[in-house]
Structures are given as structure tokens and as C-alpha cells.
């Protein structure tokens, strides 16, 4: 095996060793199919007040505008499905935010992977992306055969469902490319039927401005009273569409120590949440993604629901 075939195998083996669930590779080129979909989504204001989604339209669709001479997009999945959940009847936090903020955890792994590529293969230039830059990660992961886009617009796989993070390395190295997999949602509408705010406006289209994750994390102003009593106790993010998905019966718990939650988080009652102080907030969510809402945002969310 020569050149790109050998390089591809090396990269995929190292990704596995670093703890990634899977790795798929696509040719770095303009995302033809995504362009009209993104344009329509923005035109219909489905991004709400997430104005940053309007920026860098071209870069979102063309990886060569992010990395000079880009040849390949390496997509990676990292499992975050927890072995334990919060107690019953409490205010709920999305499972992805139980442990340390995934940006730190994944950035470190991507840095190691890029370093490995440079040491083993030679002078390769690239950039790592963890949903903090204009990269349509779900589209790339689907293109790279890591899963299909579900009706809830999350990436889905038959083997492990959808509880994982997606990240990319865009590099100027030619590799062997993977092919997309087929859609296995069939006639199922579990996610559409279960969404508390009816944010999945049609199969495969989520109105971001109606999503509980948007209201509890992205929205900086007051939450509109029109959605009062629709949050089903979610105070940071929402997992409903994933929790009801039949494919998530196959989720297996992660083995990433940094994603283990602080025990206090799992045992907090509604009363604990209502009485949370800034000190407790800092301690329990020290390096967690929950810090994105800040203490004031979390209090706003709790007060809105209770």
C-alpha cells in the first residue's frame, strides 16, 4: 500500500487510539447541496438571534477558504453518552454538558492527531475545528460516511445513535475518501412528535429559534412568555429529540474520564437548583459548557420554569 492509502490507514488508527469513536474522510470541496439549504434556513430567520450564523457564508461551505490548499476534511466523532444520569424529577442539563467542556477535551486530541500526521507523514498543514468556527460539521461527517442526518438534524448512526461530538481537521494532504451512508430514519417521526416546542418544523429542518437549547443557551434576552410551560424542566440545552430516537437504544457509555460529571450535579434536586449560589455554580460547573449561560442565565432559566 502506497502513499494516500497508507496515510489514510495511519490516520484512522491514530484517531481510534486517541479515543475517537470513528473517523471518516472527505475531499475538501464546495458543499453544493448544503448551500441552498443554509441560504433558505438563514432567510427564514431560523437562526433567531444567533447572528454569527450569517457571517462567513462562503467559508462555511468551502473548506479551501479556511485552509490554503486544503485537500481533505477529516471528520471525527467523540462519544459523550454518560453511564449515569441526573436524578428523576429535577431541572435538567443536556448530557453533553455533564463533564468538562468538550472544546478543551477535543482540541487537545485534535492537536495530537495533527502532530502525529506531521511526524509520521511529513509537512502537512491543517487546522482543527470544534464547532467554534464556520464549519458545517454535520454535513462533513455525513459526507464522510460517519452517519446520516436524522429528521432532528443531528447526525445518526445505526451502531451508536447520536450522543457524540463532531470535530474536523482540514488538511492539505490528499487521502482516500469515504462514501456517505444511507438514511435509516424511514417513516419514524418520534423526534418530531416529541419536541416540546415543535421546533422540528418539517423532517430534517429545525427552526433554531424555537429550540429549547436556543432559549436556554444562545438567547441573551428574556425568554418569550409564548413558550412558558413548554420546557419540561430543561434549564441548559435539551435532549428530547435524541432521547426518543430508537437508534439511541444502542448508545454505549463513553470512557473519557474528563466527561464524568461532578457527583453533585447528578444528585441536585429542584430545591438545590432553586437555591444555587454563585459559589456552588462555580464549583459544580468549573470547566463545564454550562458556564456559557453564566450564573445569571442559569438563574433566568430556572426562574422561567419554576
TrEMBL record:
- Which segments cross the bilayer? none
Query: Which positions in this protein are listed as binding [4Fe-4S] cluster 1?
Result: 185, 188, 191, 245
Molecular functions (GO terms): 4 iron, 4 sulfur cluster binding; cobalamin binding; epoxyqueuosine reductase activity; metal ion binding
What does the cofactor field's note say? Answer: Binds 2 [4Fe-4S] clusters per monomer.
Q: Does the keyword Cytoplasm apply?
A: yes
Q: For the 4Fe-4S ferredoxin-type domain, which residue ranges apply?
A: 173-205
Asked if the record carries the keyword Metal-binding, the reply is yes
Instruction: List UniProt keywords, sorted A-Z.
Output: 4Fe-4S, Cobalamin, Cobalt, Cytoplasm, Iron, Iron-sulfur, Metal-binding, Oxidoreductase, Queuosine biosynthesis, tRNA processing
Q: Where does [4Fe-4S] cluster 2 bind?
A: 195, 211, 238, 241
InterPro entries with a match to the protein in the record: 4Fe4S_Fe-S-bd, 4Fe4S_Fe_S_CS, QueG, QueG_DUF1730
Q: Which reaction does it catalyse?
A: epoxyqueuosine(34) in tRNA + AH2 = queuosine(34) in tRNA + A + H2O
Pathway the protein acts in? tRNA modification; tRNA-queuosine biosynthesis
Role of this protein: Catalyzes the conversion of epoxyqueuosine (oQ) to queuosine (Q), which is a hypermodified base found in the wobble positions of tRNA(Asp), tRNA(Asn), tRNA(His) and tRNA(Tyr).
Quote the subunit structure annotation.
Monomer.
Instruction: Report the protein name in the record.
Output: Epoxyqueuosine reductase
Organism of origin is Ulvibacterium marinum
Upper lineage is: Bacteria, Pseudomonadati, Bacteroidota, Flavobacteriia, Flavobacteriales
What gene is it encoded by?
A: queG
